[in-house]
């Protein structure tokens, strides 16, 4: 998912700016979009299934627009639970003694079910199956605390990987899990309003004319009100941001925790070329996710980069389609080989192999188009474990690398050779502090759900 929030000391068209912000985060979720806007008195919310441009036509955008808007949040969702339901769209809202609150959440709480059960026994009510609602209810029920204290207290009770924005009528809050698994950045607009922006990635700041101030730190809570920007370190932890943000998820023009995604993808490709060289004629990326690594592979190996696969720019991200059948059809909608591959030994570069189904189809497309050899190079290690922190890398039984060796996967996808970057190589390519690599090595830095909760492990 992608989250976005703004606070402006002067009236601004926050409905429009929030639209631009979540549109810049569309790659983080395509199932639902929503926003909430307040002027200190009124509090408007609109959300629905669909892309940002589908949910917010002019009429819908007008219905959240407020002449004196000061605070807003927005969300793009992709469900990690598979439930593509309208009532799970965000922002979530609730009425409390602190006034109405809105929450937009990226990530997963690993102990949400236990906390929810405890709250149910104490009489709490839940309207959705969304674990974000547990966070919102926890904040809402601390009626004796102010909003910042209540949010900090909720952060202490829920574990996992998360980044959230929360708004009241008069303040904007952003907070990030103690490991900083999910990204969150702060920006500010130049010019007279000096509005603050909190978002999943810097591209959303730039989209609304703000510059990057800094990343929210792991375990930090920041809030903006009429007195400006404030910070509270709630729960300092060992930073282990999600490596998949750099491998695949974040946009190529984003810089997260001081590491540029495009540059790190190029280093992954260079590393792959050193670890797994091959005699070949051209290097071809699977667009767009294999682009950076293919540039790196070509540079390091000296094999020319070529445009071997056309990508229909009107197709979305394949994996975000919720069912296998939908994903299969979407591959053909999306990709088609060019004449560059005819008679060529191709090094095909992609960011990841999850189920293997897309990869098999792509190898097949290249062969049909006359490629003489296809050598598959992957800029992430084999994905063997489920993600409990908000990236839908599928249930374990669907992860081809959890049940197949590299050689078996090679045979399955029909490649002449297949290699995955090493875990050490990936670490070096990203650099920076620690990294979550749990979906590769099963070491979960921010905890796991109780075993009997985990249908994903089945
Ligand atoms: P596969 O061959 O595993 O079906 O698909 C691999 C390609 O699709 C990669 O380009 C990867 O970016 C994308 N992909 C497919 N399914 C998923 C998924 O469930 N999660 C993620 N993160 N990426 C996926
Ligand atoms: Fe990212 Fe994988 Fe960790 Fe999930 S398990 S947070 S996808 S590195
Ligand atoms: Mg891809």
Plain-language structure description:
It is a single chain. The protein is α+β, with helices and mostly antiparallel strands and 458 residues long. The chain folds into two domains: 2-239, 4-Layer Sandwich (Glutamine Phosphoribosylpyrophosphate, subunit 1, domain 1), CATH 3.60.20; 264-431, Rossmann fold, CATH 3.40.50. It has helices at residues 14-24, 52-55, 58-64, 112-121, 131-141, 147-157, 202-207, 243-249, 261-275, 291-301, 324-334, 357-368, 400-403, 406-413, 423-430, 438-441, and strands at 2-7, 32-38, 43-49, 71-77, 92-96, 99-109, 160-167, 172-176, 185-189, 196-199, 210-215, 220-225, 228-233, 255-256, 259-260, 282-285, 309-311, 335-337, 345-350, 373-378, 417-420. A hairpin with a 2-residue loop joins strand 12 and strand 13 (228-233). It is globular and about 70 Å long. The model has no long low-confidence stretch (mean pLDDT 93). The structure holds guanosine-5'-monophosphate, iron/sulfur cluster and magnesium ion. Iron/sulfur cluster is lined by residues 161, 181, 242-244, 387, 389, 391, 393, 436-439.
Supply the helix-strand structural class.
alpha+beta
Architecture per CATH nomenclature, i.e. the level-2 architecture of the largest domain: 4-Layer Sandwich
Number of domains: 2
- End-to-end distance: 24 Å
Mean pLDDT metric:
93
How much helicity do the residues have?
25-40%
Q: What small molecules are bound in this structure?
A: guanosine-5'-monophosphate, iron/sulfur cluster, magnesium ion
The amount of beta strand, in percent, is: 15-25%
How many strands?
21
In the CATH scheme, the class of the largest domain would be Alpha Beta
User: How does the overall form come out from the CA principal axes?
Assistant: globular
| Largest sheet, spatial ordering of strands | 3-2-4-1-10-9-11
Major β-sheet annotation: 7 strands, antiparallel
Low-confidence residue ranges: none
- State the CATH topology of the largest domain: Glutamine Phosphoribosylpyrophosphate, subunit 1, domain 1
- Rg calculated over all Cα atoms: 22 Å
User: How many distinct helices?
Assistant: 16
Family: In the C-terminal section; belongs to the purine/pyrimidine phosphoribosyltransferase family.
Binding site for Mg(2+): 289, 350-351
Active site: 1 (nucleophile)
Keywords: 4Fe-4S, Glutamine amidotransferase, Glycosyltransferase, Iron, Iron-sulfur, Magnesium, Metal-binding, Purine biosynthesis, Transferase
């Amino acid at each position: 998912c992608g989250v976005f929030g703004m606070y402006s000391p002067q009236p601004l068209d926050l409905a429009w700016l929030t639209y631009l912000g979540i549109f810049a985060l569309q790659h983080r979720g395509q199932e639902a979009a929503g926003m909430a806007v307040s002027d200190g008195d009124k509090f408007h919310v609109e959300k629905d299934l669909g892309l940002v441009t589908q949910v917010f036509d002019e009429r819908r955008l007008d219905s959240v627009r407020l002449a004196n808007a000061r605070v807003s949040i927005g969300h793009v969702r992709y469900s990690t639970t598979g439930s593509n339901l309208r009532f799970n769209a965000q922002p979530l809202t609730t009425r409390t003694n602190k006034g109405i609150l809105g929450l937009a959440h990226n990530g997963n709480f690993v102990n949400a079910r236990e906390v929810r059960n405890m709250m149910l026994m104490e009489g709490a009510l839940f309207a959705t199956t969304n674990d974000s609602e547990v966070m919102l209810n926890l904040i809402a029920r601390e009626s004796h605390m102010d909003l910042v204290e209540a949010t900090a207290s909720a952060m202490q009770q829920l574990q996992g990987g998360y980044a959230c924005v929360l708004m009241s009528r008069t303040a904007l809050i952003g907070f990030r899990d103690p490991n900083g698994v999910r990204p969150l950045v702060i920006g500010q607009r130049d010019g007279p309003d000096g509005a603050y922006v909190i978002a999943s990635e810097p591209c959303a700041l730039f989209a609304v004319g703000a510059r990057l101030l800094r990343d929210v730190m792991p375990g930090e809570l920041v809030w903006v009100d009429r007195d400006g920007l404030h910070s509270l370190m709630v729960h300092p932890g060992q930073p282990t941001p999600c490596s998949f943000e750099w491998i695949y998820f974040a946009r190529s023009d984003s810089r997260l925790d001081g590491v540029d995604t495009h540059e790190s993808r190029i280093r992954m490709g260079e590393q792959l070329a050193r670890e797994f060289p091959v005699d070949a004629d051209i290097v071809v990326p699977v667009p767009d996710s294999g682009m950076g690594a293919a540039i790196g592979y070509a540079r390091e190996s000296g094999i020319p980069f070529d445009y071997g696969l056309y990508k229909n720019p009107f197709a979305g991200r394949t994996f975000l389609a919720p069912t296998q059948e939908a994903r299969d059809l979407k591959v053909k909608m999306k990709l088609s080989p060019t004449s560059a591959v005819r008679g060529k030994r191709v090094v095909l570069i992609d960011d990841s192999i999850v189920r293997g189904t897309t990869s098999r189809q792509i190898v097949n497309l290249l062969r049909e188009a006359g490629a003489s050899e296809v050598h598959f190079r992957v800029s992430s290690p084999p994905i063997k474990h489920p993600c409990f922190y908000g990236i839908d890398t599928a249930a374990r039984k669907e992860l081809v690398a959890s049940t197949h060796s590299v050689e078996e996967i090679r045979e399955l996808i029909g490649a002449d050779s297949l290699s995955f970057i090493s875990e050490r190589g990936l670490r070096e390519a990203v650099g920076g502090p620690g990294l979550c690599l749990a979906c590769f090595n099963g070491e979960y830095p921010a905890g796991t759900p109780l075993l009997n909760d985990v249908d994903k492990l089945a």
